[in-house]
Amino acid sequence: MTEIDSSIDWNEIAKSKKGVRTNDNVSAGNVIAETGDNIIISAGAVKEHEYIVPKDKLDFFDGAEVHLNISHSELAGFEVPAK
After folding, report:
1. Which domain holds residue 36?
2. Is 83 part of a structural domain of the chain?
3. Structural domain tally of the chain?
4. Beta bridge partners of 19
5. Is 83 helix (H, G, I), strand (E, B) or coil?
6. Which of 65, 67, 68, 81 is deepest in the core (most CB within 10 A)?
7. Confidence at residue 47, expressed as pLDDT on a 0 to 100 scale
8. pTM for the complete prediction?
9. Residue 49: CATH number of its domain
């Protein structure tokens, strides 16, 4: 497992749309972009939910998924309001 650090290629993770999992083992969508100190996660077939999550809420990257150090219910607090 790889700790979240500056050596992670966020562009590659976003390009590959790597999955995201919360600390209560719930699939939370896919990384679609990185902006400074945040990652943007999209969940749902037609971008039903979009989250902007600070990188300090990330736990580790195992090569397949980005793991958050927050629960799925806490993730809701980072949801971007629908346009």
Report:
1. 2-78
2. no
3. 1
4. 30, 65
5. coil
6. 68
7. 58
8. 0.88
9. 2.30.30.240
